[in-house]
Amino acid sequence: MKKPSRNILTLATLLAVAGGAGLVLRAQAAPAAAAASAATAAVLITPAMLGMPPVPDGRNLYSETGAGRISPAIAGDLQRIYVPNLRSNDVYVIDPQAMKVVDRFKVGIGPQHIVPSWDLSVLWVTNNAEGRTDGSLTPINPKTGKPGAAIQVDDPYNMYYTPDGKSAIVVAEARKRLDFRDPKTMALRFSIETPGCPGINHADFAIDGRFVIFTCEFSGTLVKIDLVERKVLGYLTLSMPSVRFKESPGASSTATAGVWEPGQTEICTVIKGMPQDIRASPNGKRFFVADMHADGVHIVDGASFHKVGFIPTGIGAHGLYPSRDGKRLYVANRGSHKIHGKRNGNGGVVVIDFATEKAVERWPVPGGGSPDMGNVSADGKYLWLAARYDDVVYRFDTANGDVARIKVGGEPHGLTVWPQPGRYSLGHTGNLR
Question: pTM (2 decimals)?
Answer without folding.
Answer: 0.88
